[in-house]
Specification:
Layout (H helix, E strand, L loop, with lengths): L3 H11 L4 H10 L13 H9 L10 H9 L5 H21 L1
Helix pairs in contact: 2-5, 4-5
Length: about 100
């Protein structure tokens, strides 16, 4: 099942929407974030290295990274979309 982010990325890939439209929408949305505490000791750092990768979060930056690795978006598009996500998160943090 597709989520909003995947639908926008598919639309970009297929030429149904422009990069400007997608970045504008990405700047306006709230993005799910991973919250991890920083390790405070070498034992914590070692334990963190042994943990499995974080699980996939639908509708998150994971979808943008996946689209890039699947060659559905270019490096320039990836950079623009990454910046749009960062902008949205900075706005959210400032309001916060």
């Amino acid at each position: 099942m597709l989520n909003e982010v995947q639908e926008l990325l598919d639309g970009l890939h297929e030429g149904r929407v422009t990069l400007d439209e997608v970045t504008q929408r990405f700047r306006a949305r709230k993005w799910p974030r991973r919250r991890k505490s920083d390790p405070v000791s070498y034992i914590d750092m070692a334990a963190a290295e042994l943990q499995d990768p974080d699980p996939y979060i639908p509708g998150s930056f994971d979808d943008i990274a996946a689209a890039y690795h699947q060659k559905k978006i270019t490096l320039d598009q990836f950079r623009a979309l990454s910046e749009a996500v960062a902008d949205a998160q900075r706005i959210e943090d400032a309001e916060g």
